Amino acid sequence: MKIKICLLILCLLPSLAVAAPSSKGSTGNIDTPSADVLRPGQAAIGYYNLEDDKSVVGTISAGKNVEVSAAYVEGRQEDDFTKVNIKYAIAQEGVLTPGIAAGIEDIGDRSERTAYLVASKSLPQGIRLHIGGGNGNYDGVFFAVEKKLVPLSVGGAFPDSSLIVENNGHHMNYGLRMSISPGLKMTTGWRGGDPFIAISYNYY
């Protein structure tokens, strides 16, 4: 009985070891942020090859509960630009309570400054929900659902992988995020109906 309870608790807690930067730079899903922030001493980098542009992203912990990120966007039809983001974890996710974070994307308003609030909660069977709201890029409500294909895998090691379905406030995105090796992840799928591929690395 105690073993079953421990396994349930593990399933209900977030796995920050497999967190990856979104296309905007902050820790999250494909386009949308999660309530997670990197812990002190952690950093992540990534590259997104999207239909409309290419993004090189980087994320670092700026102290307890604070994450700073940036994305250099190479537009195929527009000028290149760099946007800087910040996210603060208001509440950490617990067994029964969601994690909550607030953030600002594109602080310098190079594309469109966006403020948001997001909550994330792990559920049984390797499911994790994210729901939030914001202005600018999100234009209202956004959400994402993650489903772990190997629910009890730990440490972000192969074959740790998750299916991601999200709505970024404008269109649906679908992806598969896979750990190639500890810290190294690949995400591929469809973003707004167009194929994309991304790769990221987390430093612990």
Discrete helix count: 1
Largest beta sheet: strand ordering: 3-4-5-6-7-8-9-10-11-12-13-14
What's the structural domain tally?
1
Counting helices, strands and paired strands, the structural category is mainly beta
Write down the overall mean pLDDT. Answer: 88
* Gross CATH architecture: Beta Barrel
SSE topology string: HEEEEEEEEEEEEEE
Q: So what's the CATH class?
A: Mainly Beta
CATH fold-level name: Porin
Which SSEs are present, and which pair or pack?
Layout: H1 2-12, E1 20-21, E2 27-28, E3 43-49, E4 53-61, E5 66-75, E6 81-91, E7 99-105, E8 114-123, E9 127-134, E10 140-148, E11 161-167, E12 172-181, E13 184-191, E14 194-203
Antiparallel strand pairs: 1-2, 3-4, 3-14, 4-5, 5-6, 6-7, 7-8, 8-9, 9-10, 10-11, 11-12, 12-13, 13-14
Can you characterise this structure?
With 204 residues, this protein is mostly beta strands. It has a single domain, classed as Porin (Beta Barrel), CATH 2.40.160. Helix content is 5%, strand content 54%. It has one helix and 14 strands. The strands form two sheets. It has a twelve-stranded antiparallel barrel. The longest helix has 11 residues. It is globular, with a radius of gyration of 16 Å.
Describe the structure concisely for a colleague:
The chain has 204 residues and is mainly beta. It has one helix and 14 strands. It has one domain (2-11, 30-203): monomeric porin ompg (Porin, Beta Barrel), CATH 2.40.160.
